[in-house]
Amino acid sequence: MASGRRYAGKVALVTGGARGIGAGIVRAFVESGAQVVFCDKNESGGRTLEQELPGTIFFCCDVTQEEDMRRLLSETVQRFGRLDCVVNNAGSHPPPQWPEETSAQGFRQLLELNLLGTYTLTKLALPHLRKTQGNVINISSLVGTIGQSRAVPYVATKGAVTAMTKALALDESQYGVRVNCISPGNIWTPLWEELAASTPQPMATVHEGILAQPLGRMGRPADVAAAAVFLAAEAHFCTGVELLVTGGAELGYGCKASRAVTVEDPGIPS
Ligand SMILES: NC(=O)c1ccc[n+]([C@@H]2O[C@H](COP(=O)([O-])OP(=O)(O)OC[C@H]3O[C@@H](n4cnc5c(N)ncnc54)[C@H](O)[C@@H]3O)[C@@H](O)[C@H]2O)c1
């Protein structure tokens, strides 16, 4: 089937679609022939993309506000009469923080965005998705499984997104609704750029980020977006899957002991 027809006649809803990975997903679903509705709390970015991609509909809203999510869904279904796919992409990663620099309040706020935002929209969308035997795609993270230094709250929220994906996949299978997640590795987005800028040596941080992948580059939003369209349009027998889009970052051994660790000599004879 031509790529422009892969998801024709379907309606996809994408959160955090104004920039980065979300914007890439909006573009890819438009190219697949779907009707795309997207939201973001960044109004100017959202309006700019909406104008660039005729036929898309943008709503300025915050995924942590349940009322916003109710309005987003009801307007989508009223306008298009159906909903086939929800992509929970809106999320954030705080600048690097040692455990003692974190706070319960900061952790709670991140849970509200990265985990409960996903939970709330999905729960509200289920009655519509059951009618179309649609699917949910959660944008989680590789680090939710392998961990990441100086990111305890972020890692915990993403680990929970991956776990929630699997639990929901089990419960929704009886309705024919598939629930999957994508775990990106290092994807070059405005968020990654901002995080690098918050480090003492931004260029060195970016270089380290590139070298983390055996493929020798960071991913692009389009790489994640291609995986999302695949899960929605073609992966009919996949549910509860965590699809890694990482350039192989999780493979093999690396230099993982910090300089502060006392290195143990295994006693190799000289
Ligand atoms: N970039 C990476 O390397 C990477 C890796 C793994 C996972 N991820 C995940 O991918 C997703 C997108 O990341 P990105 O790098 O494109 O980030 P980004 O900051 O570049 O884009 C995120 C978008 O989400 C929007 N957003 C944030 N909070 C919102 C809210 N409360 N309501 C509505 N919209 C909101 C932002 O305005 C922004 O437009 C996030 O969930 C992130 O955790 C990113």
From TrEMBL:
InterPro entries named among the record's database cross-references: NAD(P)-bd_dom_sf, Sc_DH/Rdtase_CS, SDR_fam
GO biological process terms held by the UniProt record: fucose metabolic process; steroid catabolic process
Keyword Oxidoreductase: yes
UniProt GO MF annotations: D-threo-aldose 1-dehydrogenase activity; estradiol 17-beta-dehydrogenase [NAD(P)+] activity
Membership in a protein family: Belongs to the short-chain dehydrogenases/reductases (SDR) family.
Membrane-spanning segments: none
PANTHER family recorded: 17-BETA-HYDROXYSTEROID DEHYDROGENASE 14-RELATED, SHORT-CHAIN DEHYDROGENASE/REDUCTASE
E.C. designation(s): 1.1.1.122
Protein name as annotated: L-fucose dehydrogenase
Biological source species: Erinaceus europaeus
UniProt keyword NAD present: yes
Enzyme class per UniProt: oxidoreductase
GO CC terms, sorted: cytosol
Record's keyword terms, sorted: Carbohydrate metabolism, Fucose metabolism, NAD, Oxidoreductase
Catalyses which reaction(s): L-fucose + NAD(+) = L-fucono-1,5-lactone + NADH + H(+)
Gene: HSD17B14
